[in-house]
């Protein structure tokens, strides 16, 4: 597999099971997946991994994914990254502008299609 074909998916979710599921969903594709369970050093982790897309939970411990989304979208270094916000919470009046939203529990095919569509744009 050529490195040029590999797309990087970055997971920000405090639920290890979500990390495992997403790894299983995308294991057959040309993806490199990294995840973090806490948003404490998010900027550093993103800078180290250089993802092509971010899957962001709306609740990450003491952090709010909506605030994180806004911070990433207003940072020139990360503003270009597509962000898919994942949540079991009500998605009305988000107060942020993710690239896409997927409600938990998510449909596997829906997640795959949205990720592929967003990565194909890059």
Quick structural gist:
Helix content is 34%, strand content 25%.
Description of the structure:
This protein is an alpha/beta fold and 122 residues long. The protein has a 5-stranded parallel sheet with strand order 2-1-3-6-7, sandwiched between helices. Strands 4-5 form a two-stranded antiparallel sheet. The longest helix is centred in the last third of the chain and has 14 residues. The radius of gyration is 13 Å and the shape is globular. The two termini are 19 Å apart.
Taking pLDDT < 50 over at least 5 consecutive residues as the criterion, the unreliable ranges are none
Largest sheet: 5 strands, parallel
Please state the CA-atom Rg, rounded to the nearest Å. 13 Å
Mean pLDDT over the residues: 90
- DSSP strand tally: 7
**SS-derived structural category:** alpha/beta
Strand content: 15-25%
Q: What would you call the quaternary organization?
A: single chain
**Helix-strand string:** EHEHEEEHEEH
Give the strand line-up of the largest sheet. Answer: 2-1-3-6-7
Number of structural domains: 1
**CATH architect. name:** 3-Layer(aba) Sandwich
Give the helix tally.
4
Helix content: 25-40%
Characterize the overall form. globular
Span between termini: 19 Å
CATH class: Alpha Beta
The CATH topology comes to Rossmann fold
The CATH superfamily title? Response regulator
Protein name: Response regulatory domain-containing protein
Keywords: Phosphoprotein
Pfam families: Response_reg (PF00072)
InterPro entries: Bact_response_regulator, CheY-like_superfamily, Sig_transdc_resp-reg_receiver
